[in-house]
Amino acid sequence: MDSRITRIRSELAKIPYQARRSHSMGAERHQFRLGPRISASEADAFEAEHHIVLPAAYRAFLTELGGSGAGPFYGLLPLEECRLFTMNRKPADGRPRGFTHVDHPDALQGDLFLHVIEMGCGDLCLIAVTGPLTGRMVTGNADGFWHPNVSSAQDFLSWYQRWLNHMRDGKDNRPLGLTSPATIATAPWGFRATTSPRCRNPVHRPSRTP
């Protein structure tokens, strides 16, 4: 077992009781609880059905920690709800790239990204499952409202650990949906971010590499 699994399990259990932690957007939904782990055979079946290999760190999380629930934004999607996307071609005018579901007739043939975290409003938090970014976390918007952002974390477990660490330490990290107590206390909008005109969910737009 990866030693990070044990550390993440321990730190996740402590998070709800840390008074000075950052506010994590969407935590009201998952309440820092993980759903049941999936079996290795379930992971194998998903891989066979979609003709992919799940990145090792992400698969380890699902089979050894939890198959849904606690995570950045609105939390980890159950594997059966995760869908594959491709990144759209870069527009000639420099506008941001969007993402298209692989079954859509306009989807390009190219590297595959699995939607694993719910962000809402057409925003996507994905893990690359093919190509040079395999295993890395990528955030973007399906309609290209903002530029895709590749996390500097090398794999899913490192990315998830960063979320826990920054939340525990009371840091701001908008790409991970975190707002520090200091920002909450002084911001004119108070406890919640501004509301997108496209939906009712609070919006935290990535402004730097998470």
Polypeptide structure, described:
With 210 residues, this protein is α+β, with helices and mostly antiparallel strands. It contains 6 helices and 8 strands. The protein has helices spanning 3-14, 27-30, 40-50, 56-64, 156-168, 181-186; strands at residues 23-24, 84-87, 99-101, 112-120, 123-128, 137-141, 149-150, 178-179. Strands 3-2-4-5-6-7 form a 6-stranded antiparallel beta sheet, with no helix packed on it. A two-stranded antiparallel sheet has the order 1-8. Strand 6 (137-141) and strand 7 (149-150) form a beta hairpin. Helix 1 (3-14) runs parallel beside helix 5. The protein starts with a helix and ends in a 24-residue tail after the last helix. Residues 192-198 and 200-208 have low confidence and may be disordered.
Which key phrases capture this entry?
single chain, 210 residues, alpha+beta, two-stranded antiparallel ribbon, 6 helices, 8 strands, globular, disordered C terminus
